[in-house]
């Protein structure tokens, strides 16, 4: 009996040990699960934190890229605006300059702006040219107005004599002016006959400037110009006759149009007196001129004719150089 009781107790103890062992295993399993769960949670949290961090970094990168794109775009827009503004400024400047040139040109052509008198002031030797259009001239008064020389119209064509020539010539000789007599060339007369008329009218030119032949369009000659060969022949004949008689090359007065049509390339070795009332002669004639008629609307004292204006001129050189164009030098 007692032996049976001892065996029963042993079994109970074994069962308790088994239960405790099972319990410990269960507890260990539970703890393991808990640890895994905890690790999983930790891992999830880390992943979550990393994901959040990565998202934030990505957002910052995107935002930074957007800022860069916005900045670049703003710079491009600014450059474009500056470029457009420069174009407008250039365009406005060119338009203003063009308008100023057009307006100034129109005023110059209408002779409301006179550039030539300013330029002409830079020359030492000044003079006038006159005809019957200035009427009766008080040469004593006229000569005192900063003048050094005067050309007086003598003849025209092969028969016409200026009605005021003799009076002007004789009165002007009483002044200290360098004097010359000019002929108005006719496209319709023979050159030899025109030279003969000038010589018969003017006569002796000792102490005077070389004879002048005025070659310019008149009447309908501009719209219906004579043939070049005919003009060159007649003008050449007149110049040759005058040079032979006075032993000096005549002076040719002309305009730019007539110069191009008949003088250029034919009579280059003659002293040139040019009409250029809108701009300095260098614009059209370069350095080829000796005398320059720079204004045909000057107003001086000492004459009373149908024409209120008088032509004014300059000589390119000095008085000593002007005397080289005299047929005989004045002896002081």
Brief descriptors of the model:
single chain, 332 residues, alpha/beta, TIM Barrel, two-stranded antiparallel ribbon, elongated
Helicity, as a percent range: 40-55%
Strand content: 15-25%
CATH class of the largest domain: Alpha Beta
Order of helices and strands: HHEEHEEHEHEHEHEHEEEH
What's the helix count?
A: 9
- Rg from C-alpha positions? 55 Å
Number of strands: 11
Mean pLDDT level:
82
- Under the CATH scheme, the architecture of the largest domain is Alpha-Beta Barrel
Q: Biggest sheet, strands in spatial order?
A: 1-3-5-6-7-8-9-11
Please mark out the parts with pLDDT under 50 across 5 or more consecutive residues, or reply none: 15-48
CATH topology of the largest domain: TIM Barrel
The profile of the biggest β sheet is: 8 strands, mixed, barrel
The named CATH superfamily of the largest domain: Glycosidases
Shape: elongated
Distance between the termini: 188 Å
What does this protein structure show overall?
The structure is a single chain. With 332 residues, the chain is an alpha/beta fold. The chain has 2 domains: 1-83; 119-325, Alpha-Beta Barrel (TIM Barrel). It is built from 9 helices and 11 strands. Strands 1-3-5-6-7-8-9-11 form an 8-stranded mixed beta barrel. Strands 2-10 form a two-stranded antiparallel sheet. β3 (149-156) and β4 form a beta hairpin. α5 (191-202) packs parallel to α6. The longest helix is centred in the N-terminal third of the chain and has 108 residues, at 2-109. The relative contact order is 0.11.
């Amino acid at each position: 009996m007692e032996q049976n009781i001892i065996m029963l107790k042993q079994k109970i103890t074994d069962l308790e040990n088994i239960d405790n062992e099972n319990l410990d295993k269960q507890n260990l399993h539970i703890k393991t699960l808990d640890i895994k769960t905890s690790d999983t949670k930790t891992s999830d949290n880390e992943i979550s934190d990393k994901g959040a961090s990565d998202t934030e970094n990505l957002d910052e990168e995107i935002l930074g890229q957007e800022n860069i794109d916005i900045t670049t775009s703003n710079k491009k827009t600014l450059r474009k605006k500056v470029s457009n503004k420069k174009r407008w400024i250039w365009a406005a400047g060119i338009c203003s300059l063009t308008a100023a040139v057009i307006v100034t040109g129109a005023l110059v052509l209408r002779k409301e702006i006179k550039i030539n008198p300013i330029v002409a002031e830079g020359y030492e030797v000044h003079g006038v040219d006159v005809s019957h259009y200035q009427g009766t001239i008080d040469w004593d008064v006229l000569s005192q107005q900063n003048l050094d020389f005067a050309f007086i119209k003598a003849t025209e064509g092969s028969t016409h004599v200026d009605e005021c020539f003799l009076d002007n010539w004789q009165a002007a000789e009483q002044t200290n002016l360098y004097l010359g007599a000019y002929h108005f060339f006719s496209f319709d007369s023979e050159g030899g006959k025109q030279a003969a008329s000038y010589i018969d009218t003017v006569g002796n030119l000792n102490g005077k400037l070389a004879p002048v032949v005025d070659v310019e369009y008149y009447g309908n000659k501009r719209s219906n110009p004579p043939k070049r060969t005919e003009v060159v022949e007649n003008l050449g004949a007149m110049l040759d006759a005058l040079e032979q008689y006075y032993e000096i090359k005549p002076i040719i007065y002309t305009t730019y149009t007539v110069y191009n049509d008949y003088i250029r390339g034919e009579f280059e070795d003659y002293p040139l007196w040019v009409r250029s009332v809108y701009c300095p002669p260098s614009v059209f004639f370069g350095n080829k001129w000796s005398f320059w008629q720079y204004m045909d609307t000057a107003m001086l004292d000492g004459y009373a004719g149908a024409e209120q204006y008088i032509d004014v001129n300059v000589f390119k050189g000095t008085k000593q150089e002007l005397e080289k164009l005299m047929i005989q030098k004045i002896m002081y």
